Structures are given as structure tokens and as C-alpha cells.
Amino acid sequence: MELNELGMRACEAKYQAAAVSEVKKNDVLKACAKALIEYNKDIISANDLDIKAAADNGISEGMQDRLRLNEKRIEAMAEGLEQIAQLSDPIGETIEEFDRPNGLHLKKVRVPLGVIGIIFESRPNVTADAFGLTFKTGNAVILKGGKEAINSNKAIVKILRQVLENEGLNPDILQLIEATDRETTVNFMKLKKYVDVLIPRGGAGLIRAVVENSNIPVIETGTGNCHVYIDKDADIEKAVPILINAKTQRISVCNAAESLVIHKDVAQDFLPILKKALDEKNVELRGDENVVRILGDSVIPATEEDYGTEYLDYILSMKTVDSVEEAIAHINKYNTHHSECIVTENNDTAEAFLNGVDAACVYVNASTRFTDGFEFGFGAEIGISTQKLHARGPMGLKELTSYKYKIYGNGQIRG
Amino acid sequence: MELNELGMRACEAKYQAAAVSEVKKNDVLKACAKALIEYNKDIISANDLDIKAAADNGISEGMQDRLRLNEKRIEAMAEGLEQIAQLSDPIGETIEEFDRPNGLHLKKVRVPLGVIGIIFESRPNVTADAFGLTFKTGNAVILKGGKEAINSNKAIVKILRQVLENEGLNPDILQLIEATDRETTVNFMKLKKYVDVLIPRGGAGLIRAVVENSNIPVIETGTGNCHVYIDKDADIEKAVPILINAKTQRISVCNAAESLVIHKDVAQDFLPILKKALDEKNVELRGDENVVRILGDSVIPATEEDYGTEYLDYILSMKTVDSVEEAIAHINKYNTHHSECIVTENNDTAEAFLNGVDAACVYVNASTRFTDGFEFGFGAEIGISTQKLHARGPMGLKELTSYKYKIYGNGQIRG
Question: Predicted ipTM?
């Protein structure tokens, strides 16, 4: 189907999506969960085609694993939809309510964004997840998945659209772009006439392409060059587990730490202890002159590029500083405004760091790995915003909404 | 100065801007107000150059008037800064605060956006106004004004930067792009590395150019194709003044009405009454077949284009509908999501309209002209957002802020 046609259908469907009651939305989500399990064989055979094509195209085992769907993974998708059904519906909430001296009564009310576009990479589970979150918030959605997962995505979307239809709703509340060429993707980014917000989910390359090409308002998600700063007043008993957790608990995610910043006053004492723990996890170390001097030649000298790199690997850059101010300046120079941590027992230093560091989430004495919609108690997330407009940090249901002013008068005119 | 240099300076200044106390910000704003009046002769002689150039370039009297600054207008600019000093500072406010089962304590705190870019057209008073609002909210700002006002803008910015410096602050909190060529403007729209948000203020052409060219997140402001819908249950005593006020109280503004939608059941009775009132204001009428049939040949047949046009003139398009649903569909097809009004005494119809119409501000029995930061009680506004991301409707101080999460732990790591 042509993109404009898709856009028009989404625009038509969005008004219905916005008007579905909370009870009905939850029923539909539960029916979707059931249908995914009932028709899991359809999904698995479609997925087999994708896996076969991936193998034929020499795609890595790791990528193939991310692409693979089996009964258990489909159950997890279904469970995700069930969980979204349990969350309370933000739509219709009165955010503020006030009167003006002229008698006008104003209500600021939460409404859907309208049509949300989501561009994502290989994982086909995002399809059901993105539908669940956007549907629960009264939005219509147009999905553009990675071409490696096209058969899986088509099978999942077919099942979910069938449920929408069975439930008496417009199936165009959920649409998938089936063309997989690059030109279609770029044209999708320019569909401002029909799409209210575009959310890319994927690596730095995808995000950059969307930001450069889109004329639709974009919410940037994802890239995380996160730091752990160990202050001169740090408790080493806390510093070691926090650094190890932030760096190695899961290396491929955006809230993993990529860089250690450490105060010079404690570098001599703490670095050997930290190195021992990092060595156990086989983390490659790249440090500045001071670090190399203290830890010896097993540490690779760090370059400017290291400080700006999100490794997503068992690699850690290391930098010594003279003060918390220098730590803040270093982090603000190289970070991606995602998640940053200070380890310190000094409250004043902690507050200076919390205020000075420019990031969505700033931690005192806790791992950066907590930046996550579930960990924040939002119950779900569509991604982690690294921009400052609209939403920052983990984006749950509320962050998929906008607001409008309803204004009640009795004949007021402006003088 | 080169744009990159400007961007780097703004980025350096933004951290200081974010840390200035409320008391100090208010002192600086008052000092700026005083300085504008003290040095008004400098502004007026710079403005004379702009006015002379405008006259030489055959710019219309109306435009020249918008460009002109005199003692009284400079006083108004100063008063605007004084007023901003009176508003309470949103920065640092705790928006939400909650604990997690693992003991993490989260604070969602209001912070500045960072560096705001503002591109505006001829009125030089925007310069002081935009500085006041962005400074009060802890942001650094880069301004790009219209080339017609370049000398005036330079004079105003010079005075304000001098005050910043006298007050011991980094003057780069406020910067003006002095180059007036189109290429510089387009390059400014691509300064994502340094600018967090770009706000265009001006006509539809400017807004479109920014949306098409910018890779910085944009807040769209301004264009308003606003409707008044007169329902079958309308009170004509309210309908006439609301329509006349919305259409004619000030024709050149974005919250002025451009189109009348009227229920067929009352068209025969109400249209002649409305026409009489509109004739008194010399409003040209363009109506559909029904309107022409009822009101006769003095009404020009309306085209599709009429329904999509923001006239900003004494012209009104008119459309008859069979139901509130048809009114909503018509408005959602042609509007710019700015401000819409229903005149009705029926509460159910009013709620259907409030819920169904996709606009920032939807009115029952009141003029669309109230969509304004001052009228909403925000004390000031930087513009009226017509997009759904971040801010919708009048944007006051709060809408020039973002937030961050401060997270307090005692050694938590993720399992």
C-alpha cells in the first residue's frame, strides 16, 4: 500500500482509537494476548522464513537469536500485552483545572498524541509491545520494522488486526509498512501530514538517520554513553559492585556504563581494587596517563575517541579528575544525556553532581542500569528519551500522550 | 562570528544560566529593564537605520510600523521584563517524588531546556521578550531576527549583554546571529550539536522552512485556521458577539476565526442575523451552496481552498453541516489544531465537540481570541504551540523547561 494511503487510514482510525473506553481497550489487549498464543504456529512459520533468510544472508548467530521466535517468546509477548491491560489508562485525566477572572473555566486534559510512527530494528517482539502501548494510550500506530523480521512482523500484525476487527474496531489503528526498501523508510520519515510523532528504536545509526531526515517531530531514544564517577568521598564497598553492575550486568544495553571517572585522591588506593573486579569479568581497560601509571601496562592508553564511545562491549574507558567540577565538565562534554552516577558519601558533592550533570537520570550510589520503565515503576516503556523536549528518561504510557485545553464559557468575548 | 563558535559559547553559558538563583535572575531582569530605558536613544537611532532601509526598500507602511521603536514602545519592552521578574521561577520545582521497593528514592525535578534557538520575523520587541522568558527559565538563548530589524536587534542585545556582564554573568547567555543571509539561517537550523530546541515565531512560510530544514527538535507555533461552530442548540444572543469577536477583534492574529460552521437547522434563521453583524464590520463572506441560497449573491461561493485558508483578513468562509459529527469532521479536516469554538446550550453536544475536535484549545460559548498566555493567566508567552509534542497551546515559563530524574540510592545494583 502507498504511504499516503496508509497515512490517511491512520488519521481516520485515530479518532476511533482516541474514543475507545478503558474497559474496551483492556478487553482488546487481552484478546490480542490470547490470539498470539492461539495462532503461535502462524508466527513461528513466518519467523522460520526470516531465520532462513538471515542464515542465507550470513547474518550472525547473535542477530539470528534476537530475531528468533518460539512458543516461549510468543508467550512473553502475550504476557506483555496482559501487563499493559493491567496499567491504568492515562487518557482523559484532568492534569490541571482553573478559573479565570472573566468566568472562563479551563481544564487541561490528557489526550492521545494521534498517529505515532515507530521505526525499529530486528527484534519482532517490539511489534506487539509497541501496539500495546500505543493502543492503551488511544493512539493509532504505523510500524516500520527491520527487513530481517518482515515475515514475523506481518504475521503478528495480521493476528492483531484481526482481533481489532473482531472487536468491532477499525483495524487501521495498527498498520505495518510492508515495503522494506530504504526509500520507503525515508519517505515515511517525511509523512508529517499524517504522523504526529516519530519514535526510532534502535542503534545510533538509525537514530541519526531519523533525526536528519524526518520532518515529523521525533523523540530520540537510546544511545547511552554512561559514566560512573567515584568521588574522593566514595565508599569503596559500594563503588565496586556499582561499577561492575553498571558495566557488566548486561553490556549491550543503553544504560550500561562505558566510562569510569575517578577522583585523583582515591585513584591510587581504589584503582587496583576496581581492576581486580573488572579483570574477573574480562573487561578491557583504556585509561588516561594517571590510570596507566597506577595500574601498569595492561591498561591501554585512552584516546579522545574512547571517551566519546558507547562500546556496548566488555571495554571501559577510565579518566582521573581533580574535583567533582572537573568530573561534571568531563561527563557533560562526552555523555549522551542518558544516565550518570556518582559514588560518594558526601551529600554536598552528591547534590552538586545531581544538579550539574546534564542527563535524563542522575544517580547517587546506585547503578545506571536502573534507567528503565519497569524499574521506575511505570509498568512498561516504549524507550528511553535522551532529548529534553516532551519526555526525558524512561517513557511509559503518560509519555505517549499530549493534552488539550477544554474551555467552558457563557458568552465571553475579548475586549 | 561563526555559527559553531556561537553554539559552543552558548553551551558553555548554559550551565551558568541554569545555576543562577531566582533572586539574582529577577535582579538582572529589572536591571535590563532599566538599561533599555536608560539607553533608549541608542536603540532609537539604530532603529532609525532599519526604518530608513525599509523605506528605501519599499517595505509597506504596515510593516514599517511593526518595525518602529519609540520611547513608548521601549518602555513597553522594559515593562515586559519587569513583569517576567514578578513571575515565579519554575526551575528546581519537584514535579514528582516516589520510592521504589528496592529503596531507591526518585525525584523528578524541573530543569532548563539548555540552549534555545529562536527565529523570528520583523518585530524587534521580540528580542527583549524572548531573552526575558528564556533567562528566567535558566536557559541560554541564540536569537535570529529578521534582517529588516538587524540594527535594532543588535542595539537591544548589546545593552542586555552589557547588563549580564555588569552583573557578573556570562554575556553569552544571550547571543544574536548578526549575519542576515538565508544560508546562515538554514545552517542555524542544523546546529543540533549545540541547540536543544528551536522555536520559530512568524508566518506560515517561516514555520514550514524551519520544520523542513531543522534537525533540532522544533516547537511549531502560530498558524491558526480557527472555526466557530454554531450548533442547532445555540443561543443566537451568544453566537453573534462570539463570532464577531473571534473574526474581527484583531484580524491579523493566529487565534482569530477564519471560518463559520453552522447547523442546517438554524442556518435559515441565524445566517441573516449573522450577516447583518458581519456586514457592519465589512467582512467578505464565502459560503457553500446552502449559505449562498439563504443569503443570496452577495456571498461568494466557497472553494476547497477557502476552507483551508488562514485569511488574516476581513474574510470569512462559511459551511453548513447536518450534525455536530459533521462539524467535527469538517474542522478536523481543515484546521491547524489551534483554537476552535462551539456555540451551544446543549451540554452533551458541547462535550462531543470538546472531545472530538483535535485542537490545542477548544471553547464552549467563548471567543477563540482567548488563546493567549496572558489570558490563560501564565503571565507571559513565548508563542502558541500547534503541535502535540512537549507543549500545546499557549507556552509560558513552564513550557520552556524540561526535567531530570535525581535518584538517591545506598548501593543498589540491578539483579
Answer: 0.94
